[in-house]
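Let us practice reading a record.
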Amino acid sequence: MTDAAQVEYQEILYEIDGAAAVITLNRPETLNALTDLTQAEVRHALDRSEHDAQVLGNVITGAGRGFCSGVDMNALGKMSEAGKRLGSSFEHLSAAPGNPDDDPNFEIGAAYFLGLRKPLIAAINGACAGLGFSWATFCDLRFIDRGARITTSFAQRGLIAEHGTSWMLPRLIGPANALDLFWTSRKINGEEAFRLGYANRLSEDGECVQDAVEFLNNLNETNSPTSLMYMKRQVYKHLNKELHPAMVESNEWMDESLARGDFKEGVDSFVEKRPPKFNRVTAD
């Protein structure tokens, strides 16, 4: 990773709040529409948090009235003219966050979110559409403001269910509900997103970011970061496995966890009635 201290982000903000890294898409005049630069900066920021022992997890949100309205329309226009996807390279933002096992399932598009070592929460504070919807869908949890609005919008642009959402969304809300959102592109608010099971927390307007930060800081007080990391790996890796190999791998990882210092610390702190002092997780 490029030395984070030498990088100044142009289209995102990166802040540390306790044990949470807060990444804010910062193009409010476009409802935080994604450019190639925005995507590269977010990837770099997530790699940066992976190397920071203080950070337990990440929150991604948007500045102003929107979470993310999708791909920047100027980029969409260029893709329409070319008839294909276009890409740009930003060498100063070179980064490879997560995926320590080089699992090919976590290499394409927003699927790299699933391979991160640390939790990633989408704090959906407003309009969420297109690729922004895909990004939120591939986060580990979604905290949403009551008045936020979500839409898929793919069919209205003559597109398919993009960026792996056809794999992920039915696993969150079921096939029929997923097809409803894909086919109609209807806008749903935070309350319906929560009712469908898409959102994990329903926040009052303007509070989803702080709720997500508070959630991570509460986890940080009592939980082993290594345990959280392995639980995330278990969930996403075992979605692609049958029960027997998943059980075998879980038993192997359980034996390893019993031999770690965190297990002893977890027991000792419980017996001694004191806060635990667990080892931190970094990519180093």
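A brief commentary: Residues 77-86 have pLDDT under 50 and may be disordered.
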